Inverse folding.
């Protein structure tokens, strides 16, 4: 019964939240730098720069639940785990979009 106790489940959930939160923050730093690059170089609206910038900003929203994971009262909540899983998926897709935006020049 060691692996089925409530404390073990809470420990695993908070540990998973920490790992996901660090991954989200790391990927969002990359996405934020690319977003600043897009805005700074002045991509035109019809070139897709504004659309890509908006999509990358949506990915940056998930930095707030990731930062909330490091507070003690939100650490083991299931909703934080769900938001972090959704955030890591969107951050990976955002990083892929950022990579495409920087490397492909039409």
């Amino acid at each position: 019964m060691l692996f089925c106790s409530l404390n073990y489940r809470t420990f695993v959930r908070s540990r998973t939240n920490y790992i996901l939160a660090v991954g989200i923050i790391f990927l969002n730093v990359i996405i934020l730098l690319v977003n600043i690059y897009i805005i700074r170089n002045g991509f035109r609206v019809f070139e897709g720069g504004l659309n890509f910038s908006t999509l990358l900003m949506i990915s940056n929203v998930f930095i707030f639940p990731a930062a909330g994971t490091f507070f003690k009262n939100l650490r083991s909540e299931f909703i934080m785990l769900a938001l972090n899983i959704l955030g890591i998926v969107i951050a990976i897709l955002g990083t892929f979009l950022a990579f495409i935006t920087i490397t492909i020049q039409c």
